[in-house]
Amino acid sequence: MVLSRERLLDLTTGREAMAFDRAIDNQVSRLRRKIERDPSAPHLIVTIRGGGYSLSAEVEELPP
């Protein structure tokens, strides 16, 4: 599933996104530095040109 910058802003800050708002790009960059082996060539959080971002890692639910 691809989430647009505007949708991510709505989900994280609860405000309408401005056309030039790069807050999500900054947050994704920081997150990549923490979780990616090589943040300059990300494999877990992928940028979809013209679309937004997609999580490409497998996610498992932990047992209760």
Automatic annotation (TrEMBL):
It comes from the Bacteria. Transmembrane segments: none annotated. Keywords: DNA-binding. GO terms for biological process: phosphorelay signal transduction system; regulation of DNA-templated transcription. Residues 1-57 form the OmpR/PhoB-type domain. PROSITE patterns: OMPR_PHOB. One of its GO terms (molecular function) is DNA binding. Pfam families: Trans_reg_C. Residues 1-57 bind DNA. This is Transcriptional regulatory protein, C terminal. It comes from Lampropedia hyalina DSM 16112.
